[in-house]
Amino acid sequence: MSYQIPSITEPKPLKENEIVLVTSGDLRLSANQECWPAQKAMEDKVGKVFDKLGYKIVRGHPYDSNLKHGFIWNQRMGMDVFKKIPKDARVIVAESVWQYSHHVLAGLLDHKGPILTLANWSGQWPGLVGMLNMNASLTKMGIKYSTIWSIDFEDEFFLKAVKQWLKEGKITHDTSHARPLDVAKLPKKEVELGKALAKQLRSEKAVMGIFDEGCMGMYNGIIEDELLNPLGIYKERLSQSALVAKMRTVSDAEAQNIRDWLDLKGMTFVTGRDE
Fold it and tell me: Are both 140 and 222 inside the same structural domain?
């Protein structure tokens, strides 16, 4: 019997001054189309900064004229994009929007070159939050990366960090504000209570309902069972679609009883006339 042995095509090497830029987007087409102008404007600014420093930004994936955006919008696409990126290339993950991290995690996991996550500091779309989700996911996977952010990409904080990344392949941030917990300085009564509660939890155990863990690419939000179970906590995996289906079986009278109970307990709802 003969077999067809698959062959792997190596990506074309980059020039020394070329940097690959990728951007992970939403899974939803409407969100990607709505947010694309802001992403494009951010990429243009970033490109000019690196151009002044003698480097050329090369997009790892083109703008899609049919979809009307230039985001990586699913996991398979992300895998295909990274197949064409040299493993040792400098890679920038640029985000000005909320994004699904799993779109690019597969490619970043295998990457050997310097990785920089970069976001704009803007309230228009949650790019900084998207980048932080990416950072948390990369940290959970044990992938080395650097990170930086800016409002206009012209401030000294940003420029200094980028220059260090280009020279050293990393960015060093001041983390002196973070310090290890000194358990010996914790209040004695609270320590006693905490230990007792932990012992009770491990003995009696608890069930934690989880709706669609990892939803929207939040790999960082998944706590593995083998880490959680020894604490006495066990997951009951629930489906959002099952929740919606169950909600349809709730009568208006039952819903009103629940609302009355919440009102009685002091909760305030600010709603319109029909909600």
Answer: no
11: pLDDT strictly greater than 70: yes
- pLDDT band of residue 107 (cuts 50, 70, 90) is very high
Domain shared by 22 and 77, yes or no: yes
Count helices and strands (H / E) in the chain: 9, 7
* 84 within some domain: yes
Burial 14-47 (b: 16+ CB within 10 A, else e): beeeebbbbbbbbbeeebbeebbebbeebbeebb
Q: Is 214 exposed, middle or buried (0-12, 13-18, 19+ CB in 10 A)?
A: middle
Residue type, 32: N
For the chain, what is the mean pLDDT?
A: 95
pLDDT classification of 213: cutoffs 50, 70, 90: confident
Residue 200 CA, chain-centre distance (Å), reads 34
Q: Which of 137, 168, 199 is the last residue of a domain?
A: 168
